Every structure is written in structure tokens, then in C-alpha cells.
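Hi team, as promised in this morning's meeting, here are the two structures we talked about. I've kept the exact order from the run log so nobody has to guess. The first one is mostly here for context; it's the second one we should focus on when we meet again. Sequence first, then the predicted C-alpha cells.
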Amino acid sequence: MTTQGDRYAVAAIVVQEVADGSDTTELTELASRLADEARRLLLEDRPGSNVTAAVAISDTPAPLPAAATSRGLDIDRQAHRVSVDGRPVELSYREFELLAFLAEHPGRVFSRRQLVGSVWNGADVGSRTVDVHVRRLRMKLGPYAAGIVTVRNVGYRYEPARASLGTVA
């Protein structure tokens, strides 16, 4: 329990993942309302106290989950490097972004349109651009190519458990 004059901090963190290019206006408004309500409740509890509420929104991608990298396949988003069995793999900018994006969302299927929106920032690219980049990426990943799975008539997903099977689906 705190007494008059004691200083303490209360923090609430809310994380909401949104697709690149998505409108975050509603999310920003919700976060602001939550911060205002928290401030109001704290002021009710401690009338006359100095309470500040703040909202911070980051567009920095979440770090890759531990499960997203397979044994032998290392994706370092901060250094923008990929290695296979300890050997560096040279990837183009878009190949790296495509692999990192899929690995950040293991098991989730993305349509070609969603991938263009997220990896190519919605650029006007050819209909086969994603397929060509996936093919090139698979060639460079060798035995870990199987981690990028084609879902017929839908798109692609990343399955880290399949990454070392040695077959491409």
C-alpha cells in the first residue's frame, strides 16, 4: 500500500497486430479511450494526484517468434541476414522481406494479394511477382525451402516444422 507522497507507476500495454497498410485509426482511437479511462479511474482513486495517460503506436515489426526460425535456418531481421546451416544466404530485399513476413506469421495462409500489400507495400506489380519471388527464395533456401508451403488457389504459408524435410510443396 502506498501513502500520500509516494510515487508509483501503472502501465498497461495492449498489442494489436495489423496487416501492413491497414487503417489503424480505429485502433488509435480505442487506445486513446482506454488511456483516458485508466486516467479517470486513477484520479477517482487518488483525487488531486498527478496522473498522465499516453498512447504510443509503433510500426516496427514484432520480433520473429522463436518458433518461426527452424533448426538450421536463421532469420535476423535487425541485421537483415539469413543463414542456412550457418552459411549466409544472399537474398534480394524483397526475398528477405517475403521470408521474414511469412516467418513472423507461422501457419497463417496469405493470398498473393495480401503478400503484395504487405511485402510490396501495395505496389502495382505483375500477377506472378509473388510466385517468382517464392520460387527464387526456395532455390536459395535449399532443404529449408519446404517451409514455404503453397496452398493451392489461395497463396502461401510458412511452416517451420516442414523446413528441414527437404521437399517443396
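And here is the second protein, the one for discussion:
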Amino acid sequence: MLCYTKYLLEHFEDALLIKEITRGKKMEVLDFDTYLRGFDYQERKDMKIQLPELFELYAKGEAQVIDIRFHEEYEAWHIGFGDHIPLNELPDRLDEIDKNKTIITMCPHYDRAEIARLFLKLKGYKARYLTDGMLRIVDYLRGDKARDYITKIKG
């Protein structure tokens, strides 16, 4: 956690308590100090999401899933749903993120997904990270389960 904190402090110093206009909506942007002071057990729970809830929210159209891996990782393999915005491009591609949905960030395990989630949270998005990681999605969505879920989300 110390590495994340150092990274965040170095890169998000400009995140003051201000209002931004994004897609015609006002967003409250938090600075890191304010976020940490308000961090509690509920936030610890709310920042995480596991596969069953991810699948449910995505199928209902209530979540935007973002694969934040590098381009080369994505080209090597990816799942059949969600968007791809590499972590290092995220600050420049916020216009691709739906402010009205829960944003779920994911990577093979969860380390980069948590960095992306925190960045989005500080920018005013309702963001969570997939604790199970993408490797668990691949393991879970095999055979009939893959067919059934893709059929469900494609309508």
C-alpha cells in the first residue's frame, strides 16, 4: 500500500476539492487526503466487487467494465465483454467512461485495477475493482457458462 500511496501523492497532487463539468454533469473531485480521512469499513467493502455481482450489474446495463492492462496484454488475450483502456491512458480517456454507471476496473489479479479504481474515485466516479481478477473470469467462463453468459448480455 505504501507504493500506491507514494504513486498517488506524486501524480494526483492537483486533485483539489473542485467541481468539474463532465458530460453536462457536475462531478465532485476529491483530493487524496480527503479520501483517506473519510476511508472507513463501508468504503473498504464498497471499493471491491466479486464475479457474481459484476456479472449481474453488467448484464443489467448498470456497470461499465474496463480492462486496464497494456495493449500487448490485451492483444494476447481478452474476454468477450467490456472496454479496454490501459491504466497509463486512463487520465486522457475519461470521456469514454459513463458517469451514470458503476465502473469496474480489472486486470489479471487486482493491483493495477485498484490503482485505476482509486484514480476514478478521486475524479468523482462510482468505481470498484474486481477482486477476483481477470484470471478468475477466464477460469469461471468456460464451456456452457461462457455460452450462457455471452448469450445473456447480447440479449
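Starting points for discussion:
Residues 47-154 form a domain with the Oxidized Rhodanese; domain 1 fold (CATH 3.40.250.10).
The beta strands are 18-22, 25-29, 48-49, 63-67, 83-84, 102-106, 127-130.
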